[in-house]
Amino acid sequence: MYSEWRSLQLIIQSDRGHISVLHSYPNNVGKDVAHAVVRPLGLGLNSSASSNESILRTDKEVKWTMEVLCYGLTLPLDGETVKLCVDVYTDWIMALVSRRDSIPQPIIKEPNLYVQTILKHLQNLFVPRTEYAHNQITLCLRVLAAVQKLAHESANMSRETWEVLLLFLLQINDSLLAAPTISGGLAENLADKLIGVLFEVWFLACTRCFPTPPYWKTAREMLANWRHHPAVVEQWSKVICALTSRLLRFTYGPSFPPFKVPDEDANLIPAEMDNDCVAQTWFRILHMLSNPVDLSNPAIISTTPTFQEQILNVTGMAQEMIQHPCLKQLPQIFFRAMRGISCLVDAFLGIARINIIRERLPPYGISRPRSDSAPPTPVNRLNMPQASSTMNTTPPHSRRIRSVTVTKTTVKTSSGSTAHPPKVTHQTSTTSPLSSPNQTCSEPRPLPAPTRPKVNSVLNLFGQWLFDAGLVHCRLHSGMNRDGSMTASFIQILLSYKSCITTPAGLDVRRKPSQISTENMVANPLFDANEFPDNYEAGRAEACGTLCRIFCSKKTGEEILPVYLSRFYMVLIQGLQINDFICRPVLASIILNSPALFCSDLKGIDVLVPYFISALEIILPDRELSKFKAYVNPTELRRASIHILLSMLPLPHHFGTVKAEVLLEGKFSSEESSSHDKPVTFLSLKLRLVNVLIGALQTETDPNNTQMILGAMLNIVQDSALLEAIGSSQTELNVGGSTHASLKSHSRNSSGISMTSTGSSEATTPDSERPAQALLRDYALHTDTATGLLIRSIHLVTQRLNSQWRQDMSISLAALELLSGLAKVKVSVDSSDRKRAVSSVCSYIVYQCSRPAPFHSRDMHSMIVAAFQCLCVWLTEHPDMLNEKDCLIEVLEIVELGISGSKSKTNDQEVRYKGDKELNPASMRVKDAAEATLTCIMQLLGAFPSPSGPASPCSLLNEETLIKYSRLTSTSKNHFRYFVLDNSIILAMLEQPLGNDQNPCPSVTVLLRGMSGRHAWTMQLHHQPRGSRANQKAFVPEPHPPPKDNMGIKYNVKHRPFPEEVDKIPFVKADLSIPDLHDIVTDQMGVQHEKLKKLMASQILYENALEQVSEERLSKTLFPDSDTECIPPPPAQEFQTARLLLSHFGFLSLEALKEPGNSRLPPHLIALDSTLAGFFDDISYLDLLPCRPFETVFVFYMKPGQKTSQEILRNVESSSNVQSNFLEFLLSLGWPVDVGKHPGWTGHVSTSWQINAGNDDEGKQQKDELMQEDTGGGVFNGEKNALYYADALTEIAFVVPSFVESCTDSLESGLAMQESEMQMDLLPSLLKQTPLTLELFPNHSDSLGNSQRPSPTQKAKRLPLGRTVPPLGPETKVIVVWVERFDDIESFPLNDLLPETSTGVETSTNSSTSLRTTTSDKDVPVIFIHPLKTGLFRMKVQGATGKFSIVIPLVDGMVVSRRALGFLVRQTIINICRRKRLESDSYNPPHVRRKQKIADLVHKYRNKLLEPEFYTSLFQETCFGFWVRPLVP
Questions:
Q1: Model-wide pTM > 0.90
Q2: E strands of 469-508, at which residues?
Q3: Residue 352, class by beta-carbon neighbours within 10 Å (0-12 exposed, 13-18 middle, 19+ buried)?
Q4: Interatomic CA distance for residues 1163 and 1165, integer angstroms
């Protein structure tokens, strides 16, 4: 930088301005003269007189006096002479600030000239004295304070004075700081103030009189001699950070994240310093420290002339220079320098970080020394001459790398005499020196600023220093120079490897690997690691971490110079080495700062996968991490390791059998093994990754880390299942026999990577076996298949769910979500493993419900509700499990426990029946969840999807549809009889048989509206089984038998009332006790008796005549007589089927009609009056209430650089605007549906839940048409089509909003008028009577054509008049964003796009305020998907963390494959919405809402009939009015 300028050091050394004429005389003469002359001057300054005018008048007097004062400053400090000299000079130099009477007039007239002389004289004060050091410190501080005031307040200083002032400061600093530090000496006490004043005055000089290059060069050379003082690096870090803060303000603008520094540091930079001056000063101050890596090499620091002179004068042995006690501080100084550079890098990257230079110095450090002091350049340092004084300014991409043979440095001392200080233990703290910037255990990692500089630019400034510092104590391979240089060879490795992966032909055509010599290993040519203590690790760790942050900040599509990539990979390989020596601080720093390393599309980064796996095998399976606690927070280290693991999990499946062209393992170590030469397939690394994942789950204790691991488990299991499902014959999953065995053996050994771990700089021992080795032995069996992974995951999760995790809410919820996801993985699993999952969930519910009352809270009940939901998922996905009796009993017992609060049967107690139990559930939410599970078992298992398809679990028939197909002439809905059973089921009975009924039997059609939805049943009464009726013929009456003419013989027999033998029985007295009639007849009675005889005789004659006439008529009548013949009656055609049905099911008993005592519940059977106004509106309102949760997802596509909502909405208009993978991703989320015919949720209430008039063929045809249409996904904007997914428990509508002209700002002024006209057009149609359908707003939907239906993407919508929207909230909208450039996430206009996510639910007029969508952009869950060049996808989830922590399976930083992307996104959306519902205080499950509405219908429309009237009404036919007038109470 200053090679063409001369240094001023010789001028300073030869300057005699601080020598007085009195130095030529004996000491006693000078001392007496000084004491005599100075005393009157000092007393005059300190006198209290009003006028203390100086006694010096002429220029000659002043100059003679200054010679005396110059000598007086060299005297011992035992008297007041030196103090008075300081008082006089500090007073006189203020002549440049203000005029004083005590200042001689010659000085006032020529202040610059005299001040320059005074400054030279004051150098004598800073010569160290052996006695009275405290007094000297005080006087020096006074002088420095006066110099500060002079520089700040003087407005008349000339350039010459500024230059003398700068040289004065440089000289006094060099005289004190260049020599080796003496404990308690003057330099140690004044170092901080000296260097601080130097930088402060230097900045003032840059502002008012910018120093010339010789002064900058001199300052740089001198500062290099002071670096063994901690204060030098400390002050340099402070000022460079303060300058950087000012530099970034005008360089990158106000939108760039500010670099905050303490106010006292910021005040060091003068406010009047302009931007150009700041930039020039910043660059020069940055390089003023020379190469900070030199601080790691005591040999360099101790080779300064002053340092060697001092040591030789004391000991006379140059070999002991590097063992000087003051050099023991170099590790801390080196670390602080690296930390300062790290802060600068973070500032340029825009990572929000408060300057942490002022933290306590850690008791350790790590280093790599540098023999020269050249500024950082992008050239490979190992290929440059060591003692170069010039700097190559050629751009890095234009430089040719020269082949240089590097030999071992001659600066070497005896390693045997090297003093190794004892290791210092460091207590674990929350903020560790190796912690990533601004990162705590719970906060997300800060993202770099979008407008940050490129990686190449940052490395051009700091790369050389960081690369050198990152390779401290590393052994490099001597054979790397075969292709010209180590860097060139390494670049060829990377390019060859990368082309093998990214080029399709690379899968088949193998290129010859680069030939790398595997000869002897040599040490770093600049130093030998054995010469220096092992406590320079912290500085090296800081450098490695900073490099990782730089490369992780790579922008999408950004190109990085190969020389930087190669050096970075070399640093990582050395830092991750675990073969011979493990540098744990460096390893921890790399892991901490590399969570996004495999997500940044770095060219050739995948060659480092084995090294990172080896590092993770050390960290994650270790529960305590006791050997890392001294360096880093173990929780943060494990979290960073998990992030790296999440980004590497898809690699084995993605690349499969692709082999690395060059295996780097072992090439940078001294090990020689034949396994090093064997190429490694990515698939062979799968087992190691899975083992690390399992080991991490078993040892993890932090809740957030555990949830991330659980999400990763679902990712790997689902990816394996999908890979096996497509029958990938190219993978080695199906390879058996020896190949499979050798693969396992190879993956166990990691191609020569040692399976042992040691401490820092410690040899490996047999006792230091890694936990990962045991894990490999335990879990290697069957974990390379999807089935094995699934079984292993179920076992691990279920075991911990009922042991360690059952009291932790966040982990429990994540574990239940994982189990729900595993239930949906389509692999064949033994029934015992499935029952294990179900049984564990049941046991979890039992444990939670049985906890003591103080533990019962809303959060604990939320855990129980989530467990019931997980149970429903397993039962619906595997309904055959309930075919086993023990599983069915266990599930039903859990349901009973949730509903009633206890089980009917326990181990030791007798069975308690339901009627004898008192209902005491844990909470109403738990009871509702148990009821939902029971409904799922009874209604959905084996019945989903229903005949109407998965879009509707209910029947699509309603009253109008049934009447339309019946044989009734009238279309009135009053033909239905309405009853309510048990206050929970509404029966709508149509007694007329349907038109297609051919059997004249009692038939009734029933619409059952219950908690689980609406169902239609047609029932017929038969007296024979179904099988017997199959062969039964229609009823035909039997014919009459032929008549017979022979009537037989007629006998005339006189009938007697008693037998003839009666007359033969003699009478007894008793018989004679009753007299005969003749004996008692009197005259009067005789007349009457005769009259009676006549009447009887006439009657006999009349009857005989009639009998004769009848016989004559009968003789004339033909046989058979049609009037008297007995014939069978015709079959009945009309039945009171409603009465029959209710009677047969036992609902017409007297007990069913009576209201239960001491209860507010209505009777078991209630009749409803359908003639009351509003009845059918409330029935249709009930039909609008969904019977399962519904979610809405809005998908956006964001191209690079877009910031406005209109640009984003226009992307999906054409397929040319989007990537092909985006359209594939959309179709993996759900299937296309026609909004006009779709019976389910469409994304907006105005078009949802309609009767589906289409069929499957039409749906297939529609899908084919959509595929043929040129669209970027905008066709699924919800106007005509949408994407839809549904299972038995939830339904999701995926909407891709597109640009709508009516939403533009140019048409916003006419929007209100357009809406008012739309309402006037709709008014006549709203007043018309239209058939009731399943649509939410049938009048509105029928009156509008498909082209006129309101779009969900419109900003303003109005619902039809006279319609009430059910309270469908609280609503959770999820946004999915496909971003081509990852940095655009920060600029995604979420607030502008929220109006495009209208679903109509938020416009509900009767919804409570708590249900309205007043969510901010921070509360909206957003899933960002960024496609990587490798074909994988990087995920970022924001806004999904809530009360119950993160949601799985997708977590921040996860990388997923193309196969599993749709499933994982959909499962995450389902889990996000379930979590939001658990958090909401106002949410009611669908079946509870329907139950409440049914109860409201009973209350409003109940027909309170007396029992006789009710029974009578059952025998009457329905008509247009109700059959009995209701009883008025």
A1: no
A2: 475-477
A3: middle
A4: 5
